[in-house]
Structure formats: C-alpha cells, structure tokens
Structure to design on (104 residues):
C-alpha cells in the first residue's frame, strides 16, 4: 500500500501542478476541453492511464471535467495521486484541454 503524504509534501508537490488543489484528502482539478468529444476523449485517455496507477473520480459536464484523486485504500493522498495528476494534466494538454482550477 502507498504511504499517505503529509500536508507539507502535498503542498510541495502541488507547486508543479498548476490549477490543482488539495482538499478533503484528495487532489482536485477542473479541466475544460475544447468540446464535448474532447472531454470524452480525455476521460478515455485518463482511464487508460488510471488502469496502471489509481482510479480517479471524474465528473463530466458538457466540456468540463472535475477530477478528484485519492488513494482510497490508503485513505487519502499518496504519491500515486500526484503522479496521476501529472498524467491527467499531460493528457489534457495533448488534447487541447486546459486545467482551469479546482472548481471549488
């Protein structure tokens, strides 16, 4: 099982993840895709990545997606979530989507 990161570790890691925040034991981001199909493609791309790492909570509303990353088996944020956030951001950029913030 992955080790939980403390607040200082999470804050330090978030410095390299523009638009991502931490709240309630999860990393959060809202992403805006160019269109609905782009948003669905991003969900598909993240699903492929998530099979290798961890499984995010994803809320899709037209062309906006909200991601919540938490290692459920560890009860909070681990290095797996940080790595997945980097991968989500990279997949978003590749598809022309933009991380616009945490949505809350």
């Amino acid at each position: 099982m992955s080790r939980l990161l403390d607040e200082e570790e999470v804050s330090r890691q978030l410095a390299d993840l523009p638009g991502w925040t931490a709240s309630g034991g999860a990393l959060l981001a809202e992403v805006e895709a160019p269109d609905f199909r782009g948003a669905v493609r991003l969900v598909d791309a993240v699903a492929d990545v998530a099979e290798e790492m961890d499984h995010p909570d994803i809320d899709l509303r037209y062309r906006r997606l909200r991601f919540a990353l938490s290692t459920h088996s560890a009860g909070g944020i681990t290095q797996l979530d940080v790595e997945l956030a980097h991968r989500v951001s990279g997949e978003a950029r590749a598809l022309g989507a933009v991380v616009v913030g945490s949505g809350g």
Remarks:
- Residues 7-101 form a domain with the Gyrase A; domain 2 fold (CATH 3.30.1360.20).
- The beta strands are 21-23, 26-32, 57-61, 64-69, 98-101.
- The two ends are 29 Å apart (CA to CA).
- The first strand starts at residue 21 and ends at 23.
